[in-house]
Design a protein that fits this description.
Blueprint: H1 3-19, H2 42-50, H3 68-80, H4 82-89, H5 91-99, H6 111-135, H7 141-161, E1 167-168, H8 170-186, H9 189-198, E2 202-203, E3 209-211, E4 216-218, E5 224-229, E6 236-242, E7 245-253, E8 258-273, E9 282-283, E10 285-299, E11 302-309, E12 315-321, E13 334-340, E14 345-350, E15 357-361
Length: 362
Amino acid sequence: MTHNGLKWGLLFSLAAAVLHAGQPDRYFYKGLPYGSQSLVNPVTMILHGGYGILAMENRPHKPLDLPYEAGWENLWDNLLHPFDAIDAYGWVNFISGELIPFSIHSKHAQYWPNYTMHLFGGGMSSRMMTEWFACRQIPHPALFSAATMAVYHLLNETVENGEFRGYNVDPIADLYIFDPLSIVLFSNDKVARFFSETLNYADWSYQLAFDFGRGTIENNGQNFSLKWRLPGSQRWHLFYNYGNHGEGGFSYKIDQERAISLGAGLVAKNLVGVDDREGEKVRSLTTNLVTTAGLFYDRNNSLMASLLYAGKLRSKVRLNLYPGLIRIGSFSPGLFALVDRDNRWTLGLQLHKVPFGFAHRM
């Protein structure tokens, strides 16, 4: 890492430590021994976030085959010369595409994941990791959380860059603007309380697994859910679940602990380039979207089971049964099944306290 890069990372961590001084109130990590909450830990967070882009169909699914060196070098070339990259991309394009939501067209809405995944999702993840470390009585939990998130975001940008060589403004917006702001935002207890108690914001990530026989990563994806109670109702909520997808709908509270939710929307299929300029190596990316629908069951806002269908995706059916749903004595594993468009099955097993699961294609 360069001197400037090291200094930036140190300032990032120190700022987080100052903002989260002391033992934080727990809004996002409740220590529940079941459901998606039971799978929260720093390693899983890094794997989900760092390799999230591999969920796209036109990206390789073998982590060991990725061009890390090329991605890392190009990432830092852009981070060390941000104004050169923005000049080449165009300041108007940068502000309107990456920062301010001027357009809802997917080709000009690179800001959407910046807000949803980096600012809100990243901020909640950072706060949740601080609470996770604090729960285990680890000194300076915010510092460990900042280090976790720094690894997460740097790996994410390195993997997303891939073999591309040239100007890339996306990591500039993410790492210099949205990621630091996310920590500042969610270090505020009022903000954290609003997202946790009013919006029921939660991490509903899949059960990430490795197929060691094929060398692939399976069932990966960091997901977030929101449930806003409808005025005048104690049971019905507006519902939104998102990651590289988004399903909107309604959630019904069965009792004090359990709820069932149903939503439909769009999911990203491929990552494609837009606004290519002849003779210039300037990158701008968007996604192809296809329809999806999902059914979800949670307990105390910890996801217990989900079933998603997207007929035009490679994994058209995705079933996740989280730890705590099925028990054999004291043994309660997580299970998942993926069915692709050729009706081939991939099955997965998630063991308690193991940061990733094990998958096998049938």
